[in-house]
Amino acid sequence: MIMNKIKKNGTGMQSMSGISAHLLEAYVLWQNSVKHIPKMLRHSIGVKIDTLFARMVELTYIATFASLDKRLPFVSEANTKNDLLKFMLYTLLELKGIKQEAFNELSQKMEEVGKRLYGWKNQIIEQIKKESSNGSTGKPVEPLAKDRK
User: Sorting pLDDT into bands at 50, 70 and 90, what band is 133?
Assistant: First the structure.
């Protein structure tokens, strides 16, 4: 299963590669920041942000194991959710619900996730084009295989 691919590193945190690792890092940062958000904002926009994180994790997990012909909609939706999440974090900053430093760190992580999702989406499109041009069904390629260690 997927847990077999996760290994322990010296910091005590689980290490993964690719989009999952960056999403986990961002979510840990978010969870460390959420306790400092004023209660009113935490129970409104904070819940929305948490839900967006959860949906992105779900979508990337499903896309990882979906067949090539079904993968693109999941990656596209995850990319859209990422953009919305970045906007919601900015909104929280404007409402003075999160410190600038925490926002900057979260934004950098989510920007990296967005770049990887965009790259994955383009990789899928290229794979689909290749398969349709040579008429074979072929095996789906691991997402972002070049990022795996």
Answer: confident
* In the chain, alpha helices (H): 18-34, 39-42, 45-65, 68-94, 100-134
Calpha distance 36→30 (Å, rounded)? 10
Of the candidates 8, 7, 40, 31, the residue with the CA atom closest to the CA atom of residue 105: 31
Residue 29 in tokens: 């940062």
**Do the Cβ atoms of 72 and 125 come closer than 8 Å?**
yes
Domains and CATH numbers, the chain: 18-130 (1.20.1440.60)
Return the half-sphere exposure (C-beta side, CA atoms, 13 A cut-off) of residue 30: 26
Gap between the Cα atoms of 56 and 78, Å rounded: 5
